[in-house]
Amino acid sequence: MDILCGINFSEGGGQAVQVAAQLTSRLGDRLVLVYADDPAAQGHSGAPAPADAPADAPADPHARRQALDAELQRRATSLQMTGIEVCAHLVENNVVNALLELADGLGPRLLVIGASLPEQTHPSFADSITARLLQQTHYPLLLVGNQVSHVASWLAQGSPLHALTMLDSSPAASAALAWLKDLRGRLPVHLHALQFFDPGAAAPAAEKLADAFLEQLQVRLGPDPAHGGEVSSRCIASFADVTRHLENELQAHPADLVVLGIDPRSLLEDTEGPSLLAQLLAQPSTLHLCVPAHRPPPAAERRLPEMQTLLVACDLSATSNHAATYHAYAMLRGRGGKVHLSHVCQDEALVPSARAALLALVPAQASLWGVTTEVHVQQGDHPGQALAELAENLAVDVLCLGTHGRSTFSQLLTGSTVADVHKHSTKPVLLVRDDVPF
Fold first, then answer.
1. Engineered SS bond to 255: which of 103, 122, 164, 225, CB 3.0-4.6 Å?
2. In what order do the strands lie in the sheet with 2-6?
């Protein structure tokens, strides 16, 4: 399976990658690195590079993207030299959407993010990356703090994992226990569980209830795995001061990993102060794994990706009404995104004028719609292959082609050219009649 890790180039982001890589090695999974290059955060062309980007990243958007991709691939190659399988994606999107969309396509074992991601520093926990991911994701989310040296030591040395979880009768707690049961089948795990229950029972009854709970916990976990691992528990007759109880247990039973079952609806509670989850996650030296109550859907039912970036093959003849171009902007109007306008010239001398003509096609209201634009002019005799390669390099969501224009380029965008696009690109293609009113 895959472990999906959101990466940035800060020191804290590197710690998250370190933990994800070592966990990947222990589980025999594949590590998928994701760098989100948010166009909305970058603003217009010439905006400065992100704070976590390499210091020498250029300001030009295309050159900056190439520099970011080069740094991302360098880090992926370095991790591959440790003996794990690694792939890397540079995605033009915000961190939350980038991780969610890729996760829904891959169906990973878990997501990993660092506590130092820029968007984590929001004054409201409900607006942080963690909360926004937990409200939407189907997959467990591992949050890596800033002081995880002991965890890295556990991962590297192969000693048993010490995990702590909090249980009650909720579906979220059951989901957390199911994840731990699966993990115990793969790694040696010493598990300590806190069971919270209604304090209405008398002390003798509570003691019997604690014994019954431990017995039930052993049944739910199943037989002891071949890897071994101890199981202990403690019953707490109170639903108050959960954070304090957790802190006390972490002192008595130091844990490498705290596993929390999460109901996304609870993230909207406690609006007058820090939420319970925010308090529980305020332990920077401990890894926290948040397991959603709902199970991941089958692959066929996963969230369809939103259309964020479109590549348009533009016919610059005088007879074209540029329907494909304007349809592309209309698809992104109101929700934002990026349009790449492209043209292939057979004569290199026409490249400057073609670039100017593409810029003239950008609607005056594009910035008000939240849509940014880049233009690409290529010289060559095979427009289909050139467009397909550009679509792959830019990682666009859709390639838009106009048909029935009267120029040579437009005529080439039929028949063999469309076949070339399908042959060389994995991107969906939208064909727009160029003679329709717009």
1. 164
2. 85-91, 30-36, 2-6, 110-114, 141-144, 287-292, 257-262, 161-167, 189-196, 231-236
Task: Indicate the pLDDT class of residue 266, thresholds 50, 70 and 90.
Answer: low
Report the b/e string of 291-301 with b at 16+ CB within 10 A: bbbeebeeeee
Residues 92 and 97: their CA atoms lie apart, in Å, by 10
* CA angle in degrees (0–180, nearest 5) for 59-65-69: 135
Averaged pLDDT of the chain: 77
Average pLDDT over residues 402-423: 59
Collapse the DSSP code of 145 into the 3-class scheme (helix H, G, I; strand E, B; otherwise coil) and give the result: coil
Per-residue 3-state assignment (H helix, E strand, C coil) for 195-244: EECCCCCCHHHHHHHHHHHHHHHHHHHCCCCCCCCCEEEEEECCCCCHHH
CA 312 – CA 250 distance, rounded (Å): 56
**Could you count the other beta carbons within 10 Å of the beta carbon of residue 81?**
8
Tell me which residue has tokens 């095979």.
382
Tell me if 170 sits within 8 A of 328, measured CB to CB.
no
Which residues have CB under 8 Å from 353's CB, separation 6+? Answer: none
Residue 315's identity, in one-letter code, is D
C-alpha separations of 139 from 71, 87, 171 in Å? 28, 19, 15
pTM over 0.85: no
